């Protein structure tokens, strides 16, 4: 949409600011940008005037940021937030922006003033990628330290995480579930925590070769509850933004041994009562356990384990996720 509006002289002073400045009409069509904007983004003004200001979006900014921006600006209230845009070079540009609506006569304008977050003092801001990286590492350390007694643990956890990533993405695509990228990432990161409750299990039972007594089985079946307890204690202690949202992790820890037909533990949940994230990790966890050799058991071949999953779909496993899983091989 081209605009016929000219930049009013009252707004020209904003272009002299040292920060990157963009001025748009009421439809967010760019009327003018200043030199700093051009230097930082690499886009020349005459190539971008007339474009929508969002042409620079990276798709990494949370949708909720745009929603809150639109809500404020519609009511002519200035808005501030954080955008992750993409420079001409392809590099990401994390910036804090304040957008101020300006009514001049009949016409409405928006002035956007950016401040690059990379310029802020170190420690004040973590980019989204860095945040994800830190979260991933933190959860991995926690998971491994809880299960350090078993030498094969680290490899098992990493394989579970990798397979969870492949499965959830494939299942989302195949069934057009339109799962939020944030949710998908959360499931992938949290999958590594599924067995943290094993930290509270006596070794003699955990690695006992052969059959367990019913008493020993009862103890093992407590590991989801103990795991959720560990997670809750930890998230109370560490109150950083990136581990605040622990619901997905808690669901995986609590429900990864529930079965589709209601015969699992600890709550005998049935079908879709079991959260999706737990139904996904359950299949991956069983598959990896079956195909891995442990001191107390032999490994199964991939084919045999897949047959097991196929035979148990609708019993142990969500039939639709089981089908997606089998189709991956
Ligand atoms: Fe488990």
From TrEMBL:
Entry-linked Gene3D superfamilies: Hypothetical protein af1432, PAS domain
InterPro entries according to UniProt: Cyclic_di-GMP/3'3'-cGAMP_PDE (IPR052020), HD/PDEase_dom (IPR003607), HD_GYP_dom (IPR037522), PAS (IPR000014), PAS-like_dom_sf (IPR035965)
Domain PAS: 7-50
Domain HD-GYP, chain residue ranges per copy: 131-329
SMART domains: HDc
PROSITE patterns linked: HD_GYP, PAS
Official protein name in the record: HD domain-containing protein
